[in-house]
């Protein structure tokens, strides 16, 4: 399956994987069988896998240009990403991760001017902001040199692996 069909299927599974467990019945059933840690580990792995598939499907969808990708937009992404990773690493609780996703998606939205990517990153901004409405902004931060160092290592890994994993260099030309 390729093109728009794959893209729609990836979105449907990604959203379903996040909406169905949010219901009390399915989540409770899964936690009862897998345990809290087992559920969180399985949910995290599934989410990462579906997110990666959705990213690849957006790249394989037909290109329908919406706006030019100005050179400054890659600088915006390269400012947003270390900020997002720091927020995720230093925040206590899920709200930090959700805020980081909003920063990630918002930064990438400006740098990707085709329909599939605009829908992807715009959808992720809406998805993350709706999560922040439920959870609130991060209120507690745990700032340690280890968390800062880990955040910088993760950012460096994302920066260097982006061309290999995603297929596009994040660096301005």
What is the H-and-E element order?
HHHHHH
Number of strands: 0
Overall mean confidence score, pLDDT: 92
N-C termini distance: 33 Å
Q: Profile the largest sheet.
A: none
Strand % is under 5%
The proportion of residues forming helix, as a percent range, comes to over 70%
Question: What is the overall silhouette?
Answer: globular
- Count structural domains: 2
Structural class: mainly alpha
Q: List segments where confidence is low: pLDDT < 50 over at least 5 consecutive residues.
A: none
Enumerate how many helices there are, as a single number: 6
Q: What Rg, in angstroms, do the CA atoms define?
A: 17 Å
Protein name: NnrU family protein
Subcellular location: Membrane
Membrane topology: Multi-pass membrane protein
Keywords: Membrane, Transmembrane, Transmembrane helix
